[in-house]
Amino acid sequence: MAAITAADVNKLRTMTGAGMMDCKKALTEADGDFEAARDILRKQGQKIADKRAENETSEGFVAVSVSEDGTNGKLVALACETESVAKVASFRELVQRILDAAVRTNAATKEDLLATKEEDGLSIQEHITDLMGKIGEKLDLTYATLTAEKVASYIHSDSKKGVLVGLKNVGGADTAAVGRDVAMQIVAMKPVAVDKDGVDASITEREIEIGKEQARAEGKPEAMLEKIAQGKLNKFYKENTLLNQEFVKDNSLTIAQLLDKTSKGMTVSDFKRVAIGA
């Protein structure tokens, strides 16, 4: 059995960021083999991930990056179980590492991003698993990417909600202010789609059925139910689709009118909203 010194423990701690006792235990189990000890610590992270798979992750941190030309945005949200972990330096550093990897590789999907290899030979997934082993909590990654004529972004003050919004037909307009306003609108008002054409058919069908049931409960004639339900559906579109929503800063304008007022014909092509714990 190899003698494990304090210097050995500190070396492994520097290499991995794991706690002193965890490093000592791993080195002892690995009989002083540093690579084997690193594998043991990594497996420890996987055990925690498996054990806590059903745990809720309602805290975390969102980070965003928009390309210099403003045509592409990346948004990552790393969720954890407790607020205290969300504030730990190693957690925030991992979020930045993930965002940097997304930008560097132009990852198209979360799966592509998780598979990305870093300079140390570990994938993003392995880095997440490693940190789970160190902090003892479940971590869950959400990733969004958006390409448009112009992309605007916004992160809410709690760092748990973020938005990417794509604008088109911008002309020569400066989109910084209006893009931020629209992104803030999306965070606050949670639209389900850009406009009614983007609403999933299942949602439309559900709203029509709800409208009919409400009208029926109010004693309306059966012959009137479809018309009443369509009226309620139009109200749903107005309240829940971005371009038709009233602008929260000036309810005399819809978002569509706000954009058109800024630059004739400007509109939203798409948006991505990510929220941790909501």
Query: Largest beta sheet: what is the strand line-up?
Result: 1-2-3
- Give the % helix: 40-55%
Continuous helix count: 11
How large is the share of residues in beta strands? 15-25%
Shape, please? elongated
Helix and strand content put the structural class at: alpha+beta
Contiguous runs where pLDDT drops below 50 for at least 5 residues = none
The major sheet is characterized as:
3 strands, antiparallel
How many beta-strand elements? 8
Cα distance, first to last residue? 51 Å
Mean pLDDT over all positions: 91
SSE ordering: HHHEEHHHHEEEHHHEEHE
Question: Layout of SSEs?
Answer:
Layout: H1 6-16, H2 20-29, H3 34-51, E1 59-66, E2 72-80, H4 83-86, H5 89-105, H6 110-115, H7 124-135, E3 140-147, E4 150-155, E5 161-168, H8 176-189, H9 201-217, H10 222-240, E6 246-247, E7 250-254, H11 255-262, E8 267-275
Antiparallel strand pairs: 1-2, 2-3, 4-5, 5-8, 6-7
Helix pairs in contact: 1-2, 2-3, 3-7, 5-7, 9-10
